[in-house]
Specification:
The complex is a heterodimer of chains A (about 325) and B (about 130). Chain A has about 325 residues and is α+β, with helices and mostly antiparallel strands. The longest helix of chain A has 27 residues. Chain A is about 50% helix and about 15% strand. Chain A starts with 10 loop residues before the first helix and ends with a helix. The radius of gyration of chain A is 20 Å and the shape is globular. Chain A has 11 helices and 8 strands. Chain A folds into 2 domains: about 170 residues, Cathepsin B, Chain A; about 140 residues, no CATH class. By secondary structure, chain B is mainly alpha-helical. A two-stranded antiparallel ribbon of chain B has the order 1-2. Classes of the chains: A alpha+beta (about 325), B mainly alpha (about 130).
């Protein structure tokens, strides 16, 4: 069967849904995202890339893939390698067997990325579906069309070091016992996501948003570093993987599918509501970008207030959703 | 967001690529719609690119003035900083900082230079000068 590439909003949900569809599971990107309880918020002040903390609007790398194992009764193999040579040999062997292989890479070392997007972010996901000469044929779901990458470049991207180093990680399915999604799995996934967003942990979920708001509140308006930080919130939101608003819209798409799969028509309304929350994140991004550009004075308390508003809306949303998905 | 509100104003940092977004179509269904880019994204991405580019250019001046080693320029040129270069090269941060000084950088062995060369993807010979 020839591989079908499909454009997606987020790399990991895009990779896993493309891979599962190839293996005969009818899986959309949004269903993969929702079923693995992929929506999240995490503010990690102690993990820094280029001096700025990680702000994640989705769950940890690899958790989307892992979250799908139970609902599909699937088993995947995950392999990491000590040396780039071993990693490449294993990849070539798997391709020779006809496998389509998922992997984690750095963004920076992939030459097909536009130069301005190439930052040292190590948790990107892509699929390799073949090799021609020295070029790997790659389905990178955030690109509209399949791309190519020379073997030395791909190797470098797979073995990039630093935070979230991929160590050559590759993955592929061993077996997939269930090819459809049960109503109970959908409900369980929604409840799990609600728990994650309402978790009593200061850096995660709704409380993480509030922690970030407090941090922003304290930024001095005159310091140029404040604009960097505010821009960084948006960049993590919109750029790396598509961002806060983007993820809310993916989850809203999932809720529409869930309404049918779990026979819970009420979820359609939640989809509407989450779309509105996503629009709020976009409004926040726009305001912040205007400050970065100097069209508005840099006003950290205003950003903090908007973050708290988002936190309040998401808290109410997930409390209600938790009850609806019982 | 409605499908017709999906931003199409263009974003130079995407280099002509479009990204996929979910938006509501006329029937209220969430569908995938390609976006040519949004100004807000363009602003924050180019801001981050410019910040690090400015660091590289300042480093270039310091190298010319003889107060920094070319390693500092290359570090920023490759969009890294001292903690990241430390992680990727395997040198402790205090050693990386020392190697940013010309006199310590000049004393590096070829083997040590190669570690930086691997981490930065710059041949050892180029690492010792500005491009």
């Amino acid at each position: 069967m020839t591989f079908q590439h499909q454009h997606a909003a987020h790399c990991e949900s895009g990779v896993i849904s493309n891979l599962l569809r190839h293996h005969g599971v009818p899986m959309s990107e949004s269903l993969a995202f929702g079923l693995s309880a992929g929506l999240a918020f995490a503010y990690l002040p102690f993990v820094k890339i280029n001096g700025l903390p990680i702000i994640a609007y989705r769950s940890l790398p690899r958790s989307i893939i892992k979250g799908l194992m139970a609902p599909l009764a699937a088993r995947f193999r995950f392999e990491t390698f000590r040396t780039p040579l071993a990693g490449q040999q294993r990849l070539d062997a798997l391709l020779a067997e006809g496998q389509i292989v998922g992997m984690q890479t750095s963004v920076y070392w992939l030459p097909y990325f536009p130069p301005d997007m190439r930052f040292h972010f190590n948790a990107h996901n892509l699929l390799v579906y073949g090799k021609e000469g020295d070029d790997y044929l790659i389905s990178d779901p955030v690109f509209e069309e399949p791309v190519r990458c020379a073997s030395a470049d791909l190797s470098r991207a797979r073995f990039a070091k630093g935070a979230l180093a991929p160590k050559g990680l590759l993955y592929y399915p061993k077996s997939i016992a269930r090819k459809s999604v049960s109503s109970e799995a959908v409900r369980a996934a929604i409840r799990k996501n609600c728990r994650a967003m309402l978790a009593p942990v200061p850096i995660a979920g709704v409380r993480g948003i509030r922690l970030l708001a407090n941090k922003v509140q304290k930024l001095p308006a005159a310091d140029p570093h404040s604009a960097d930080f505010i821009g960084h919130i948006v960049r993590m939101q919109e750029e790396i993987g598509t961002g806060g608003a983007g993820f809310r819209f993916i989850y809203a798409a999932f809720l529409q599918e869930a309404a049918q799969l779990a026979q819970l028509p009420a979820l359609a309304e939640f989809s509407e509501r989450l779309t509105t929350i996503g629009d709020g994140w976009r409004a926040l991004a726009l305001k912040a970008a205007r400050m970065v550009k100097g069209r508005e004075p840099v006003d950290p308390p205003a950003i903090a207030a908007k973050l708290r508003e988002q936190a309040a809306q998401e808290e109410a949303f997930f409390r209600d959703l938790k009850i609806a998905a019982r | 967001m409605d499908v017709n509100a999906v931003p199409q104003e263009g974003n130079a940092t995407l280099g002509g690529h479009r990204k996929a977004m979910y938006a509501k179509d006329a029937n209220g269904r969430m569908v995938l719609a390609p976006s040519a880019g949004w100004e807000a994204e363009e602003i924050v991405t180019s801001h981050a690119v410019e910040t690090i580019h400015a660091q590289a250019e300042q480093a270039r001046e310091r190298v010319k003035a003889g107060v920094s080693s070319p390693l500092e320029f290359w570090m920023y040129e490759r969009r890294m900083d001292v903690p990241l270069l430390s992680q990727t090269s395997g040198f402790w941060q205090w050693r990386v900082k020392r190697h940013l000084q010309p006199e310590h950088f000049a004393k590096l062995s070829l083997k040590q230079l190669e570690r930086y060369s691997d981490a930065l993807g710059v041949p050892p010979a180029d690492l010792q000068k500005l491009p």
